[in-house]
């Protein structure tokens, strides 16, 4: 029971911390039309897709919020994110963390990210622990409207906090709209 409480507290404080950063910097952020806006991402794709002959290979849906930049200039920006992912077997991951947006041009953005989250197994694969870390990479086309279309890949792992650490991979197509 202690591990569930510890995991819940870690995720809660992470989300609360990023919420205060978003609130603090939101007014400054919205005044500049040259900045990237907050984004709401709609994602769909494959869960546990790298495992051959796995009964846990399934589809996944995700909703993700990307907040305002709290550090960085035009080429590299550090931004908070919060996401909820669910697969078609009933597994859920809810987490928050930090993204590093790297702009190679006005239209090409590569994003690397990391964040902890709470994992609920449902009828899907047991990842060994309720606290799962997400390590992600994405590449996106940025439209003039600041919306984005791209692909996101990430690995969920408990970072060996438990004796079992099978992990899983998720591959998603996404469309992100400015909000």
Automatic annotation (TrEMBL):
InterPro entries: Lipid-A_deacylase-rel
Protein name: Acyloxyacyl hydrolase
Species name: Aerophobetes bacterium
């Amino acid at each position: 029971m202690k591990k569930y409480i510890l995991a819940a507290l870690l995720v809660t404080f992470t989300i609360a911390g990023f919420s205060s950063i978003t609130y603090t910097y939101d007014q400054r952020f919205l005044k500049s039309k040259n900045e990237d806006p907050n984004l709401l991402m709609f994602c769909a794709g494959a869960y546990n897709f790298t495992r051959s002959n796995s009964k846990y290979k399934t589809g996944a849906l995700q909703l993700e919020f990307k907040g305002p930049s709290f550090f960085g200039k035009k080429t590299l920006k550090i931004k908070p994110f919060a996401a909820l992912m669910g697969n078609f077997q009933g597994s859920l991951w809810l987490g928050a963390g930090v993204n590093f947006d790297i702009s190679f041009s006005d239209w090409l953005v590569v994003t690397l990210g990391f964040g902890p989250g709470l994992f609920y197994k449902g009828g899907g694969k047991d990842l060994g622990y309720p606290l799962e870390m997400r390590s992600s990479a994405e590449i996106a086309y940025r439209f003039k409207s600041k919306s984005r279309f791209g692909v996101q890949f990430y690995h969920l792992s408990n970072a060996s906090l438990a004796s079992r650490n099978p992990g899983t991979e998720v591959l998603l197509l996404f469309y992100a709209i400015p909000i």
